[in-house]
Design brief:
The complex is a heterodimer of chains A (341) and B (361). Helix content of chain A is 33%, strand content 21%. Chain A has 341 residues and is of the alpha/beta class. The complex binds thiamine diphosphate.
């Protein structure tokens, strides 16, 4: 069933949910406002009408309750796909996610399997007010037992969500909300693996590593970089945990230079992990330190200032420029803007 | 006669008691059948012996810690005996006697405390959720389990055990609310043993009772004497039957007392006095049922001796089996993190294996 259609990421996610509900009647979709309203981003639009209240339903407004009951349902053979309305509103469920969802397989020596997917619209760039724009990925990636996935394209949104729902492991599925409306061609097939990064754009000179909301920005940067004569390779991680070392290290060994980009604050951020892994595996292939381009180490700013916080093409180009192309000494930059690994 | 179910959502002011401390019936309400009372007695005696054995094993260093439920046997046994095979039990760390009563291998109930692994038993074998350490989180698991049963058209009910302290946690409130909205087949049994470690009820709750917390969620609530096995059993059985029949959830507050300290590591003398403990010892659930059964001629010396002998044999078997060094396999550390170990975990497993081999050679 691989028809290529152009659709937005939100539409692709909606289609993935519909196809999963159709394919397996153990699948349930629930959360806040996901029923008749179709979710605040309309990702669940039409599902309640099509599949009925038994399969797609609104819950009381309580995130811990949503995840905690999903755990009990999964213990009883169902496959809940729950929505947390916004990134920062998932925090009340944090204990259920980290202490129970992530650990029950381990605590029970494999006897309890929890195929639960937690969909979280995350990240900034939509002019949202406070608590609506957090990049909370490392809270989850730091927790063994969880898979953490973030699609960067509509096609991956479809394929990875289908694969996440099929996964026997719990998956935190981070939807880059600012890309919900971007359209692209989508072939409607589940991803064959939840564990693999992909090379979105091949290049010789430098590897840009991005995921979720930053994939499009990285691709834009790669285009712009050709003006400077740099041939930029873009790796889209897709799976933040587990991490695909093979694809990333393979790329960096070829290019010898790497820049990691993410929206979240840099300090103890996901880029630190990526930079460390690259250094451990590719040190002798590197012509320059691995650089991170990240959001500043500040609480997410108000809408009128978010453009200053979020990494954009210029800031990434600037980092690429500083990759010691001619072995000249590069001047230090203010912390938070571009940081040396 | 109105059933407990037909009474309003509002719990009664005085806890329901069917058997007085002297063992005499206190109301005209029917007691459980004779064979049920005898079974409650047998299981409480065995449970208590198991509990003292487990406490003794902490002194020998065989268990890292043990939270005793001595004095709470009526709750643990009375409730479990009200469940059918298809029902689920969601216990806390203090409910080992309930687990044993449900048929879980006693040594497997102690695995968590023994340090060999986080859980010893298969939750699906007896339909018993993993013993839960973070407070109140199991309430939501029980509601989810019950809701799934409802959606799947199964007739199973989930019984969740929690303590008085756990009622202050947000999850308890979310669970009661979800259960009320969904009319889920779930029964909440709060064993109010007076203290959350050292914190007394007066600092935990301002409502007239913990059972009153059900009203706000539209959950029928009962206040009962938790040291009366007949009252516990009857009330839980009725609540389970109501849930099974589609009448929704029930919150039961059972007033009981933790005779021992919070765990073997706790010093209860710092927060309660001996008079209080002595007063509660006079309400002992096992003594109470024994008095009743004896006065009715249902329990004679021969049966009493037979039950004591069974309890002794049970404890001896636990003792012998726990007195064996547990050597968990370190390789298993990596086995159950994901359905399949990731590349990174396989690498780390290899590293640990090398380290162990190196240390041995
Ligand atoms: C979320 C959480 N906070 C704190 C603790 C530490 N703790 C363990 S037992 C306990 C008291 C629990 O009291 P209660 O719910 O009345 O149960 P009881 O131990 O009396 O059976 C506390 C505070 C915990 N286990 N979980």
């Amino acid at each position: 069933m691989t028809t290529d259609e152009r659709m937005s990421m939100a539409a692709a996610l909606n289609r993935a949910l519909a196809d999963a509900l159709e394919a397996d009647d153990r699948v349930l979709v629930f959360g806040e406002d996901v029923g008749p309203l179709g979710g605040v981003f309309r990702v669940t639009d039409g599902l309640a009408a099509r599949f009925g209240e038994r399969r797609v339903f609104d819950t009381p407004l309580a995130e811990s309750g949503i995840v905690g009951t999903a755990i009990g349902m999964a213990m009883n053979g169902l496959r809940p796909v729950v929505e947390m309305q916004f990134d920062a509103f998932a925090y009340p469920a944090f204990e259920q996610i980290t202490s129970h969802l992530a650990k029950l397989r381990n605590r029970t020596r494999g006897r309890v399997e929890l195929p639960v997917v937690i969909r979280i619209p995350y990240g900034g760039g939509i002019g949202g007010v406070e608590h609506h724009c957090d990049s909370s990925e490392v809270y989850y990636t730091h927790t063994p037992g969880l898979r953490v996935v973030s699609p960067g394209t509509p096609e991956d949104a479809y394929g990875l969500l289908r694969a996440a729902i099929d996964s026997p492991d719990p998956v935190v599925f981070l939807e880059p909300k600012r890309r919900y409306w971007a359209k692209d061609a989508v072939s409607l097939a589940p991803a064959d693996s939840l564990d693999r990064a992909v090379i979105r754009r091949p290049g010789r000179d430098v590897t840009l590593i991005a995921y979720g909301p930053m994939v499009a920005t990285a691709l834009e940067t790669a285009e712009a970089a050709t003006d400077e004569g740099w041939d930029v390779e873009v790796v889209d991680l897709r799976s933040l945990s587990p991490f695909d070392d093979a694809t990333v290290a393979g790329s960096v060994r070829r290019t010898g230079r790497a820049v990691v980009v993410h929206e979240a604050s840099g300090f103890c951020g996901y880029g630190a992990e990526v930079a460390a892994r690259i250094t451990e595996r590719c040190f002798h292939h590197l012509h320059a330190p691995v650089l991170r381009v990240t959001g500043f180490d500040i609480p997410y700013p108000p809408p009128k200032l978010e453009e200053h916080h979020l990494p954009g093409v210029d800031r990434i180009l600037d980092a690429i420029a500083r990759l010691q192309w001619d072995d000249e000494v590069v001047p230090a930059r203010p912390a938070g803007e571009v940081q040396h690994a | 006669m109105t059933t407990a179910r037909q009474r309003s959502l509002l719990p009664s002011d005085t806890p329901l008691t069917l058997l007085g401390t002297d063992g005499e019936p206190t109301t005209a309400e029917e007691l459980p059948a004779d064979e049920v009372l005898l079974e409650l007695h047998r299981r409480m005696v065995v449970g208590r012996r198991f509990d003292t054995q487990a406490t003794a094993l902490t002194k020998q260093g065989r268990l890292a810690v043990y939270p005793s439920s001595r004095g709470q046997e009526a709750c643990q046994v009375g409730a479990v005996l009200a469940l059918e095979e298809q029902d689920w039990l969601f216990p806390t760390y203090r409910d080992s006697v309930a687990l044993v009563s449900r048929g879980v291998d006693p040594v497997e109930t102690l695995t968590l405390l023994q340090g060999g692994w986080h859980l010893g038993y298969d939750p699906y074998e007896h339909r018993v959720g993993p013993q839960c350490t973070p407070l109140a989180t199991n309430t939501l698991h029980a509601v989810g389990m019950a809701r799934a049963a409802q959606l799947k058209g199964e007739d199973s009910v989930a019984l969740v055990l929690l303590g008085d302290g756990a009622t202050s946690e947000g999850d308890t409130h979310e669970a009661l609310n979800f259960a009320g909205v969904w009319q889920a087949p779930v029964v909440f049994l709060v064993q109010n043993n007076g203290y959350a470690i050292s914190v007394p009820m007066s600092k935990q709750n301002a409502a007239p009772s913990l059972a009153h917390k059900g009203i706000g969620y539209g959950v029928a609530s009962e206040l009962i004497d938790g040291n009366d096995p007949a009252a516990v059993h009857t009330t839980v059985r009725e609540a389970v039957a109501a849930a099974r029949a589609g009448a929704g959830p029930t919150l039961i507050e059972a007033l009981t007392y933790r005779v021992e300290a919070h765990t073997n590591a706790d010093d209860a003398n710092r927060y309660r006095d001996a008079d209080e403990v002595a007063a509660w010892l006079g309400k002992d659930p096992v003594d109470r049922l024994e008095r009743h059964l004896t006065s009715r001629g249902l329990l004679d010396d021969a049966r009493r001796a037979a039950v004591a002998e069974e309890a002794e044999a049970f404890a001896a078997s636990v003792r012998n089996r726990v007195n064996v060094d547990v050597e968990p396999d370190p390789a298993e550390l990596f086995t159950h993190v994901y359905a399949e170990p990731t590349a990174a975990l396989r690498e780390q497993a290899g590293l640990l294996a090398e380290e162990i081999a190196g240390a041995k050679s």
